[in-house]
Design goal:
Structural class: alpha/beta
Helix content: 40-55%
Shape: elongated
Number of strands: 9
Strand content: 5-15%
Number of domains: 3
Radius of gyration: 25 Å
CATH class of the largest domain: Alpha Beta
CATH superfamily of the largest domain: P-loop containing nucleotide triphosphate hydrolases
CATH architecture of the largest domain: 3-Layer(aba) Sandwich
Largest sheet: 5 strands, parallel
Strand order of the largest sheet: 2-3-6-1-7
Number of helices: 13
């Protein structure tokens, strides 16, 4: 399988989920970042080496990632950064199901499912000569395109809830929730760093929160500045959008700014409501009774 997507979308989590749902789930899941291994050690890390294969080689040799993943799944992250010489050795393993340690004369069989991932355009890399065409076709049997977070904003409330639960437990804090106003700001953000950026923002908020709710003040100032910038002006709305805005405004008035009740009245999800509030520059606080 080849998992594609921008940096930070959670490609390794998808690979782990595939492993956990497969018949190999009781076998090992071994992850390796091809872009983080020094160029001259890639083959040794992936395929192992025998004693004396090179200066600094471990006494008795060492197994590579393919051997360690035998019977399970090997996740090759950032496959687009793998050197060409290592790609040739990888192709042999993929085709023959055998791995030869650096410095060894005899190959040994391995039974490994390979899931590769990259944020690069491998088609362009093949055209440019930085990635082997034969390796690309061997890896690209079942491609999976993971969309960026900005294209699946409806996932944000569930992701936030999961992160809050995990972080509260890890930091030994009472369970936290997020205020509607803060969630509205998260839904309005473009998330160039995808899920990784969201996780960073939530971890920061958990550490700063003074009460049981994450508030807008607990979010990064830069996120607040971008999210609170004015929405589109009325002159840029289509007649359909103008009608939608008026319906939402009427529902907010009837519910006095209660977002859960407003979403129920309109028959849409809360995530969808947050996106529309941002689009139409509607602030729920403007519809709540003054104290």
């Amino acid at each position: 399988m080849l998992v594609l997507g921008e940096s930070g979308v959670g490609k390794e989590l998808f690979a782990q989920a595939i492993h956990n749902a497969s018949a190999r789930r009781h076998g090992p899941f071994v992850a390796v970042n091809c872009g983080a291994i020094p160029r001259d050690l890639v083959q040794s890390e992936l395929f192992g080496h025998v004693e004396g294969a090179f200066t600094g080689a471990a006494r008795g040799g060492a197994a590579g990632k393919f051997e360690l993943a035998d019977g399970g799944t090997l996740f090759l992250d950032e496959i687009g950064d793998m050197p060409l010489e290592a790609q040739a050795s990888l192709l042999r393993v993929l085709q023959e199901g055998e791995v030869t340690r650096v410095g060894a004369k005899k190959a040994q069989a391995v039974d490994v499912r390979v899931i590769a991932a990259t944020h690069r355009d491998l088609t362009q890399a093949v055209t440019g000569g930085s990635f082997r065409e034969d390796v690309f076709y061997r890896l690209n049997v079942l491609p999976l395109q993971v969309p960026p977070l900005r294209e699946r904003r409806e996932d944000i409330p569930r992701l936030v809830a999961t992160m809050l639960k995990a972080l509260s437990r890890h930091l030994e804090r009472p369970p936290l929730a997020i205020a509607d106003e803060a969630l509205t700001l998260l839904l309005a953000h473009s998330w160039p760093g995808n899920v990784r950026e969201l996780e960073n923002v939530i971890e920061r908020a958990v550490n700063l929160a003074q009460g049981p709710l994450i508030q807008p003040v607990d979010l990064p100032p830069s996120l607040l500045t971008n999210a609170l910038s004015p929405g589109r002006g009325d002159e840029r709305l289509t007649p359909l959008e103008t009608g939608q805005r008026d319906l939402i405004r009427a529902a907010l008035e009837q519910t006095r700014g209660n977002l859960r009740q407003t979403a129920t009245r309109l028959g849409i999800s809360r995530a969808g409501l947050y996106v529309k509030l941002r689009r139409f520059a509607l602030n729920p606080a403007d519809f709540r009774p003054r104290r």
